[in-house]
Amino acid sequence: MSPTSAGASRGARHFVLAALCALLLLLGVVPAPAGFAAVPADPVPVADRDSTVDLTLTSVAPSVLRPGSPINVVGQVINNGSETLETPVVRVALSSSSLATRTRVAEWLDGNRTLSTTQVATVTLDEPLAAGRSRQFNVTVAPDDLPDVSSQVTSIPLRFTVTDGSSTARGATRAEERTALPYAAADAQFTNPLEIGWVVPLTLPADPALFSSSGEDRLAAWRRAIGPGSAIDERVSALRGLPVTWLVDPTILEPPIDPDPQLPPAGAAEEGSPDSTPSTPPPSTPTPTPTPTTPAPSTDPSGEPTETGTGTQPGATGPTTTGPAGTGQPTQAATGGAGGTGAAPTPSTTTPAPSPTTTTPEPPTDTSSVDGLVSSLRSRLVARSSQQPVWLLPYGDPDTVALQRAGGSAALEQHLGRAPSTATDSMSDVSVSWPAADLRRREATAISSAWRSSRDTPPVTLLSTRQLQGTQRPETSTVARELSDGTPVLAYDESLSAATTSSGDAGTRTRRFLADSLGSYLEAPSRDRSALVLAPRADQASGAELASLITATADAPWLRSVGADELRTAEGDRPRAQIDDRPAAPPSPQAPSPISGETLQVTEGDRRTLDAVGTVLVDSDDVITGWSAAFDELASTRWRGQRGPHTTTAQGLHEAIEQVPRQVAVRPSSVNFFTDAGQVGVLVVNDLNRPVRDVRLLLNPRRYVVAVEEQPEPLSLGAQSRLTVRVPFRAVAAGRVRIDAVLTTPAGTPLGAPADAPSQLEFNVRPTGTWLYWVMGAVAGPILVVGLYRSLRRGPRPHNELDAPVDAGASSESDDD
Fold first, then answer.
1. For the whole model, what pTM was predicted?
2. Please, which residues bridge with residue 511 across strands?
3. Cα 324 from chain centroid?
4. Residues paired with residue 157 on neighbouring β-strands, in sequence order
5. Which of 153, 220, 353, 795 qualifies as a FRET site for 632, CA 20 to 30 Å off?
6. At what angle do helices 441-455 and 400-416 cross, to 10 degrees?
7. How distant, in Å, are the alpha carbons of 122, 289, 322, 327 from that of 53?
8. How many C-beta atoms lie closer than 10 Å to residue 185's C-beta?
């Protein structure tokens, strides 16, 4: 046999032998190397099956794996089905494949990438898991069971599955959870860490009671929004001392007026007005960060403690305590958090809490009024640390994209023109435009132009990197950008920002953030680069979860947290950016806005009513400003996806402003006018808590039975007062007639009753020219007849000497005297 043919024969035999070994290995006949158990390829993701079991990873420690370190995992198995899991088994598998890019990390975590994994640990719960119950598990992967990693820095894929029994077939897999664990060799160097800036919005919820309710209902709504225990209160407390930038809607510091149709009394400081709040001193020195509190062990919905269980396989740790069944929120376990410090993790997180330090207690919040709530919040923001700058949104956080599309530049300028008060403006010199939806280049230009017209200077615009052409490439190294018209832009990273939402488990979000940021770093490790993390307006993670996320970056050597102001003012030329008119789809659908041309027209009509009322109110600029601010809130971004609450708010404000002019009215009355001419008193009432002036009273008879000799002069009424106006009338004919009593502003806007149903005076007119003579004749006639009759009946009277007249020429006896 020739050497060539012999070599070919040996090659064929080697190929056949290799294929046979691979087949036996897949069939489980040939054992795997020590420490590794052969498992089938990835099962179909649980989401593709109707599974009733959930698997939650409470903590995976350390947050950054180093050579020789074990992996400690704490998790929870939740049986949401109706049948008992007889033998729940949790399996841990690793892959030696490297997740060195953001794309690979996303594909693996989203279940769009299949990798060969090797089972490295299992834990069997010691008892069956009944329906509706949950069980925590602890498992440790020893260093010897970890695969060799060839890369100096990468992320290792991990997969956790739950089976009912020992079978690993696809049908036996009841739940799956994927994660990625950053890995760094002992001698790994991070010379240019990725700079991370954090921006956290402080905006109000879509609660109609904040803007369209009065009295106790309004106060209760503001307590829920900014009072003790509110999301804003918890966020400000939990993030004390951490390098975050507050993105503030000025509404939380300057609430609109209480929409009471009778208006607030004059002389009282309007709630939330700058006059009723403290001035702004310079930011204080950094404040130590508090330690989030640890909740007590919880119970299931029935009130009974949930079951506990321990693993029976090697690698399982001691007893654990579970949280409420079906909630996916396990309580703290005995193993270390994501930081690998050995401290117990906070609920639903895998990162360690900020280290305990002594903090200056905050003063108690005044909850007796909206003014007290606002003053307390302002004081806390004033006393913030120097590493927590404040950026200001336009008042009410207007939905600039929806306004531009529905009302054009006029609507934009109207809502961008309201400047914050001096007290609020002194807290920041940075105005920010944050579009709530993807916008086109021409829309961005229109918004920027309207902003310049209203405020002279362009805003700092926050846009997603997805909306800017080319910003996903490694060459894009800084957050700060500039559009072609000179508008400054800060590009935020949507993928990293997803960790600040409330979606899913906080620990899962933190682990994904670390793996994603490492993938970003590895795409250009030698460049100086930065990224901006922007929390959402709504569905935002809790303050404690945000604090744990930010603190976790301290254990990631490829990251360095910096102030967002530092990224905004970074030295060097701002690279030119261009908005992509056809960007990729957003990570989640963007909610629609209820703002339309029709809603803007209704609001504009209400503004005209407000302006008309303002012409008769005395010294009530605060009323006009406060109501105008309330109408501005109807264009807020907070109403996206909240059409019902938006409609409720708009209707409430419309009905309230319609009632304001009706508080100045004429009281209807009936008048018996039994004269040819005379004055009649007309009662005008002012039920407003503010005085009015220049009120016109017009009296218009509906029939020409009576005439108004002269219309009254303009009226002035004090707050909560009434006035009787004397009006001259002249009777024209007898009869009944209704007289419309119309109150108007100087421009003719009706006050009191609506124009189509005015207040009326009902006159019963009987002029003296007819009835008086008849009455006098009816009385005098019988008297005359009776007198004549009596005279004729008596006849002539006899004469008497005494009755004789004295002669006018005779002298009396006294003449001689």
1. 0.78
2. none
3. 29
4. 180
5. 220
6. 10
7. 17, 38, 16, 12
8. 14
Beta carbons of 591 and 640 less than 8 angstroms apart: yes
Q: What is the pLDDT of residues 590-638, one digit of tens each?
A: 999 999 999 999 999 999 999 999 999 998 889 999 999 999 999 999 9
3-state DSSP helix/strand/coil % of the chain, to nearest 5: 30, 25, 45
398: which DSSP letter?
B
- Give the Cα separation of 268 and 114 in Å (integer): 67
CB-based contact 481:567 (threshold 8 Å)? no
321 near 297, Cβ under 8 Å?
yes
* Dihedral of the alpha carbons of 270, 276, 281, 283, in degrees to the nearest 10: -60
With CA atoms as reference, report the closest residue to 542 among 238, 157, 214: 238
pLDDT surpasses 60 at 473: no
Token reading at 458: 């362009």
In percent, the amount of the chain with pLDDT more than 90 equals: 57
Q: Which residue's structure tokens are 């299949």?
A: 114
- 20 three-state secondary structure: helix
Burial tier of 113 (Cβ tally within 10 Å: 0-12, 13-18, 19+): middle
Residue 65: which residues within 8 A CB-CB, separation 6 or more? 71, 146, 156, 181, 182, 183, 184
Beta strands in 314-359 (DSSP E): none
Asked whether the beta carbons of 438 and 398 are under 8 A apart, the reply is no
CA distances from 757 to 305, 690, 739 (A): 66, 25, 12
Measured between alpha carbons, how far is 758 from 116 in angstroms, rounded to an integer? 83
Residue 688 is encoded by which pair of tokens?
Answer: 């407003």
SS3 state at 561: strand
Token pair in block for residue 86: 């007889």
